[in-house]
Prior knowledge:
By secondary structure, this protein is of the alpha/beta class. It contains eleven helices and ten strands. It has one domain (about 5-250): Alpha-Beta Barrel (TIM Barrel).
Amino acid sequence: MFDKKKERMKKIMNDKALLIAFDHAVEHGPIAYENIDLHPTRILKIALDGGANGIILHSGAAKIVKDYIPKNFALVIKLTARTSLVNDKNMIQSIVTTVDEAAKLGADAVAFTIYLGSEMEYYMFEQFSQVKKRCIELELPIIGFMYPRSPKYKNKYDAKAIEYAARVGAEIGCDIVKTYYTGNKQTFSKVIKNCFVPLLVAGGPEAKTKEEFLTNIQDALSVGARGFALGRNIWSRDGSVELLKQVKSVMSRF
């Protein structure tokens, strides 16, 4: 690993990572959050005031907020996207932002989604290989969003499917893997054990209560999660800054 990449990895991870994910408006559209202020500056303010150490954005949102991002705060640019307007059988995310554009925006890392088990898995792997080549040249870390979508498993939160997806991310060269929480620490411990790069937990569907959400945070940390990329479970709630501070407080105990 080169010096620039080491510095960027440290900025993202340090001991553990607490990132705010804000790539939802592309996949779900603003209508899904019509009573929520989705302006990028609001999301960034929540991240900063709540003590996150970085944010994940698409390039358009990053252009709006990049001048307000402190030097020690990590910017991760999402390279791939899909919308909810297409047939769900076409489980694919395509490249919508190049590595070079992300670098010009000041990205400390890029994020790339692969739906493992999708009929379009091969195409996402091909795209990933080209992105990885350019990231190596520019010394940019890749965060792989590794999400199972295989008909072999009952649903995308199947523990075995998540374990498989996380391992694939490590094997194909992701510097950091982000995937779902399995729902309990016993099964998630196997996911961690079999993923030899730092693993971040996705925020997932909105938890029914804050208590349930914080319990999941604690359980994931207790078996070795290296951090979180939290989206709607933070910025879609009232008291989002305080909730993020609570997450950070839980993380400080591990």
